[in-house]
Write a structure and sequence with these properties.
With 193 residues, the chain is mainly α. Helix content is 80%, strand content 0%. The N and C termini lie far apart (93 Å). The mean pLDDT is 83.
């Protein structure tokens, strides 16, 4: 009987040890999976375009080192250090760069439409119309409700122009990435300093 107790205890210890080892292994795998998820989440949250988190470094380089943003930062620094800048100048500055990004939107669409089949072209056209409609409707709403009523103060026009710039830039980058995904060699900025 003592022998059965000793064998039973040894089996129990062996099984417990094996379960502990499996549990430790599973915990390590869970920690690794959570780390991968956190890294992906961070990449997606910091991404400036769809393929960013897929390691699409070529497109990232094109976007992260583009001539429009370089000139914008240079001009912004001058404007920020000027003692005499006005809100009208700031608004015009933001609007000027919105037009530059709008040119990139138009150029990307010009190259995309012919490269798509009819069904995809129609979907992209509808997507673009919806985007433009959203931009127009949102601008009308914000202008009527917050800008003209002075809820946003004297900086309201500047902030509205800055939002329009950011949204147009984001749309241009989306379209340029579609173009890049279809033909890596075709992506180039139409912007001329």
């Amino acid at each position: 009987m003592l022998m059965m107790v000793i064998v039973g205890a040894a089996s129990y210890i062996a099984v417990t040890g094996e379960l502990h080892a499996r549990n430790t292994h599973l915990q390590e795998k869970l920690v690794q999976a959570n780390e991968i998820n956190r890294n992906l989440e961070t990449q997606i949250n910091e991404s400036s375009h769809y393929g960013d988190y897929q390691g699409n470094e070529d497109f990232s380089k094109i976007i992260n080192d583009n001539p429009i943003d370089r000139d914008y930062r240079r001009e912004l620094t001058k404007l920020q250090t000027s003692d005499t800048s006005t809100t009208l100048e700031w608004e015009a500055f933001e609007a000027r760069y919105t037009l530059k990004w709008q040119d990139e939107v138009d150029a990307a669409l010009k190259h995309l439409y012919p490269s798509l089949n009819e069904e995809d072209r129609i979907k992209l056209e509808q997507s673009q119309k919806s985007w433009q409609s959203y931009m127009d409707d949102d601008t009308d709403f914000v202008s009527d409700k917050f800008i003209f009523t002075r809820h946003f103060g004297s900086q309201g026009n500047v902030q509205l122009a800055a939002v329009q710039l950011k949204r147009t830039r984001d749309r241009a980058i989306e379209l340029m990435e579609y173009r890049f995904s279809l033909d890596r060699a075709s992506v180039d900025f139409v912007y001329d300093h």
